[in-house]
Amino acid sequence: MSGCLEHTLHYSSPGHGDWGVVRVGMLAPESVQLFVCPAACGRHGALGAMKQGFKNRLFYLYVTQSDIIEGYDPLIPDAVDEVLAALSVEPRVFFVFVSCLDDLVGTDHEALLALLFERHPKIQFRIGRMNPISLGSKTPPPVSIQNNLYSLLEPADGQDDGINSFGNLDRIADSSELYAFTRACGAKEFRHISQYQTLAAYQDMAKSRANLVLLPSGLQAARQVRERLGIPFLFVPITYDPEEIAADYRRMWEFLMPEEEWNGFPGLLEARKEAEEEIQRARERIGSLPIIVDASAVTQPFGLAKMLISYGFHVVRVEAQECASFDKEHLEWLLKEHPEVELSQPEHHRAVLFDRRIEESLAIGVEGAYLSGSRYVADLFNDEGMFGYDGVKRLMRLLTEAVKAPTDLKALINDYGLVI
Amino acid sequence: MARLSLWIPPFSPDYSGAAAVLFDLKTVTAMHDGSGCTGNYTSYDEPRWYGSKAGIFCSGLRRIDAILGDDEKLMKKMTAAAADLKPDILALIGSPVPMVIGADLKGIAAELEERTGLPSFGFDTTGTAYYDQGAYLAGTALMDRFTKLPKSGRQTDRHQVNILGALPMDFGNGENVEALREILEKNGWEIGLTFAMGYTLDELANAAEADVNLAVSRFGYRMAVYMEQKFDIPFVCGFPAGELQEKRLLAALQKTAEMGTSTVLKDRCPGAAHEKVSEGKKETFLILGEEVMANAIRNVLEEHFTGCNAVVGCLFGREQALARDCDLELKTERQIKEAMNSDEYKTVIADPFLEPLLEEGSKKSFMPLAQYAVSSKLGEQEAAVLAGGRFEQWFKKGKIRRMKQ
């Protein structure tokens, strides 16, 4: 493996993409979105929303070249009025989304928000940004949309014992021992934005005493919430390595229960044992079948590769465009201990050559599967619902299921409704 | 608010049209954007993308590059890709940000050509126009560069025809184009260039050898006019939907090839109708979509229903030469909605994504006919092959559905 990550033209495979800002923004209860942009900018978001069933909350104001030159700010308040007039139920949250070009034309968002609030004082207005030209900056679209979501939380009257999960777009699966763990830490509720249907109910998250940030795109929002609402946070990136999971639980305990000595939380040992048994079963079933680990499936692809190799799986390739800082240690381990494992960038221009096919392989993640032509695909995207030993068990079952029959990858990708 | 869209998704933009024209060639093409514009094209405007090796990439434009006008970074990425992929052509496709910063894509292309020796193009697409305009920009630039003047005068005995205007935004996965090719070949026509689905650089180079061009879309019509002016090749504009229209179009092709006079098949066909409908039950249709295909559908409906009144609603622009006086240019969702709900039409034929624009309780019939430029792969179930007798099969399937009664 060479650790050299190159900046090239970007190949965009059919397996490339994620939720997109529209779908993430739709997590805000009672919200609608108005995109103010050239028509082209909205096409993928609109079609993705139709696929996901959100289009009735998504609207567009197409701007022309003249509007861009003259400034389109004055058009927005009337467009907002017209959207509101067309809705049978008034939303509580209204996102006005702008696109890349807005970064360059100097729209006065503050003045716009003030005017909108004056006209519609019962509605929370936010400026959303669908501006991939900001990728690589501190606040790219996946981060700014999470900042927006949590900016809707207002100071609460009092604090309760609840704990929030931040960053993860899907709620952690009910089967995870994380729920029992947080209960052991005194939390009656382990909260996630997706469980709320109204803006009023969503305010419960402002009462929580702590935030666990499980995906990095929620980190900036957690910092802002700490500043604004005084809720402390701990970053616990999702991992599948039992050793790291054990350490993470200890870290969480020390964060959540600073006065209490770490007691090992009785359920964890059993959960780890079960996870390791599941790993063993998967290892026996999968044998020496080559495995491709893809960053579309997990936040720490190098970490997962390390874990799988450590347990005897035959990992041959990691597909990752870049390496997150918290995954770097794993990359370095792979470079040192297993240089034979290939590092491939799915967006590299050479990807289009398709000259590294390994058809008889198991891919964890659809983009890696597409590029390698893998016969078997573990259907996992963005660590959805995974955490802790339960995440390990579920991942191992996914791998075991995946090798039972070849995957219809095209159908799988279409079902995802990915947005770039 | 004129440009407010409450339901319809944005239609395929100009940069997707330009990219689709380049798809078949061995290129290194960069869509100059952050990622979303390329994503529009690869995910929702290009049904051929899955499984292809087309060299169409995203430049990975970042804010700092846009502010500083750092073209060198783009050129380095292009030359690195060219060194690895050995393309025949380099191309840059514009998007809203290059439009705003005034990026000189043609100038960058000239510099790339200087550095690599490869024919290089810059297309000033902006994301504020529809796919056919971007396709036309790319199509004419490619022909200007590669299409050779015919070696000798036209040879009408060869019977060679180019199909112009085949784009996935109008023809989806291309089944309709294949059916058209079969009809032409079965009737003795040799097909030169099929522009731009399934063609080679050689075919493009020799496109001026054709006796006649067949324009099957608005993009095709504009290319046909361009080729008529540049290469003196006459054209027929139309699509053979239905058995009688197939005969009409083949006859028109033959006549045009012989006489050299271009023809647009937009007028009412003098042929008799199959089904007579009594007075007072006159069928009235509104056909929404791309103009040439909508004209073809109107022509065949007029053959089937005596006294039928059909109006074409152009969603992507109304080309005067292709339109009857009654035809509509529908630029906004509001205009489309008003037309669909007008008392003048009993049946609306349109992409299924437009169906929700019919008012609650509407008594109209709606006949779904998916167009990729509107509903992309989400509408594929409602796509249809209309060439030749396949139109009648589609029409008789009874896909008309009554609305919200």
Structure description:
The complex is a heterodimer of chains A (420) and B (405). The mean pLDDT of chain A is 95. Chain A has helices at 20-25, 43-52, 65-70, 76-86, 102-105, 109-119, 141-151, 178-184, 199-202, 219-229, 242-256, 266-286, 301-310, 328-337, 366-372, 388-402, 409-416, and strands at 31-37, 58-62, 93-99, 124-130, 163-166, 190-191, 210-213, 233-235, 291-294, 315-319, 342-344, 362-364, 376-378. The two termini of chain A are 28 Å apart. In chain A, strands 11-10-9-12-13 form a 5-stranded parallel beta sheet, with helices on both faces. Chain A folds into 3 domains: 29-151, Nitrogenase molybdenum iron protein domain (Rossmann fold, 3-Layer(aba) Sandwich), CATH 3.40.50.1980; 163-256, Nitrogenase molybdenum iron protein domain (Rossmann fold, 3-Layer(aba) Sandwich); 282-416, 3-Layer(aba) Sandwich (Rossmann fold), CATH 3.40.50. Chain A is an alpha/beta fold and 420 residues long. The radius of gyration of chain A is 22 Å and the shape is globular. Chain B is of the alpha/beta class. Chain B folds into 3 domains: 14-131, Nitrogenase molybdenum iron protein domain (Rossmann fold, 3-Layer(aba) Sandwich), CATH 3.40.50; 160-264, Rossmann fold (3-Layer(aba) Sandwich); 284-402, Rossmann fold. In chain B, 39% of the residues lie in helices and 16% in strands. Chain B contains 16 helices and 16 strands. In chain B, helix 1 crosses helix 2 (36-45) and helix 4 crosses helix 6 (105-116). The model of chain B has no long low-confidence stretch (mean pLDDT 92). Chains A and B meet through helix 2, strand 2, helix 4, helix 5 and helix 17 of A and strand 1, helix 1, helix 2, helix 3 and helix 4 of B. Strand 2 (58-62) of chain A pairs antiparallel with strand 1 (4-5) of chain B.
